[in-house]
Amino acid sequence: MVEQQETMNRETTTLSKPFTVEPMHKVDPAMYPSAVVDYFAHYGLDGDWCEARHLFGSFESAGFTLAAHLYEPSNYIATAVLLHGYLNHSGQFRHLIRFLLDKGFAAAVYDLPGHGLSSGPAAAIESFDQYVQTAQDFLKLVKGYLIGPFYAVGFSTGATILTEMMLEKSEGDLGKIVLAAPLIHWTAYEQSKGTYKIYSAFTDKIARFHRKNSSDKDFLVFNKTQDYLHAKHLSLKWVKALFDWNDQIESMNPCDREVLVLQGDKDGTVEWKYNLNLLSRKFPNVRIEMIAGANHELFNEAAEYRQQALALIGKYFQDQLA
Q1: How far is the C-alpha of 108 from the C-alpha of 145, rounded, in Å?
Q2: Which end of the chain, N or C, is more open, meaning fewer C-beta atoms within 10 Å of its C-beta?
Q3: What is the dihedral of CA 292, 156, 89, 191, to 10 degrees?
Q4: Strands 105-110 and 64-72
Q5: Model-wide pTM > 0.90
């Protein structure tokens, strides 16, 4: 695995055999070691279903070594860049990746700093500006391997990153952008400030509470018992960084670009009514699509909700191409 400082404590499993994530420019997709193939199989990131050329390697950004996946079909109409959520990693996007490839898109995703197979203190960040820097550097990497037009999907914290990039106009030539279950405030956000002050006086992390954030029972079981890359603790440095980011975003000027927001009305992870109100103020041309009955993990929800989210993304991207 990529060398990490203060690496995540992962469960010992037969799949957690150490392996090196080679720099992307050195990768030979025909020569992945068995441990990497096992990793792909465990998370559904490759297999008989995948006809695309799959490059799995690392790149450097903001002082981190980051693990990334590039999927290049023999023919494709555009490239979708994916940003995952907090405490998650690239493996959480297996359904979205398959959908995009089936619809004729290339796909690209990387593990954020401190997540998955990327380096950095576990699930921590000093500033969300570091996330933005890694996203910008990943876009540069993607453009060296895949062709445009380039679109993006950000889930939860991934949507936070894209929100900042759009408001500061640093998203480059990204075309259509989707914010899925965007994180601005989490549930009970204001109350959590008091809790943060108490905990931060004597610790820098707290044990993760596994919220029922999907109605897919198999996903919940896998997430809790079989996902050896899932972060086990919530970093209070990350909490402080999100508080700071929320203070920052209030003063940022609105952006007139179009953006699609997907939100489940049973989402108990984020304070979605507040979030949608803020995004409507910051993006006057926002298009909000509510998914009735869906919880937070839109791309790992029960099939009836997940398929609605995927279909909305497919139509949004393909309408632009048409």
Answers
A1: 10
A2: C
A3: -110
A4: antiparallel
A5: yes
Residue type, 18: P
Give per-residue pLDDT as tens, 45-62. Answer: 999 999 999 999 999 999
Euclidean distance between CA atoms 316 and 174, whole angstroms: 14
Pairing of strands 105-110, 78-83: parallel
155: its two tokens: 């889930």
Asked if omega into 149 is within 30° of 0 (cis), the reply is yes
Rg of the Cα trace of the chain? 18
| 263 alpha carbon, distance to own chain's centre | 15
Return the structure tokens found at 310.
């995927």
Phi, psi (5° rounding) for residue 96?
A: -65, -40
Q: Kindly state the tokens that stand for 267.
A: 């989402």
In order of 136, 160, 174, 214, 257, the CA distances from 166 in angstroms are 12, 10, 9, 28, 8
Nearest partner of 152 among 144, 143, 91, 89, judged by Cα: 143
189-200 and 236-250 helices cross at what angle (nearest 10)? Answer: 140
Measured in whole angstroms, how far is the alpha carbon of residue 314 from the centre of its chain?
18
**CA 111, CA 68: separation in Å to the nearest integer?**
6
Residue 86 clears pLDDT 80, i.e. is over it = yes
- The crossing angle, in degrees rounded to 10, of helices 303-321 and 94-102 is 40
Separation of alpha carbons 84 and 286, rounded Å = 21
- Residues 301-310, mean pLDDT to the nearest whole number: 98
Phi/psi of residue 296, each to 5°? -70, -45
pLDDT > 50? residue 243: yes
pLDDT 10s digits, 190-221: 999 999 999 899 999 998 877 799 999 999 99
Task: Name the DSSP class of 81.
Answer: E
Start-to-end CA span in the chain (Å):
42
Structure tokens at 2: 């990529």
- Rounded Cα distance between 44 and 102, Å, is 15
Identify residue 75 by its one-letter amino acid code. N
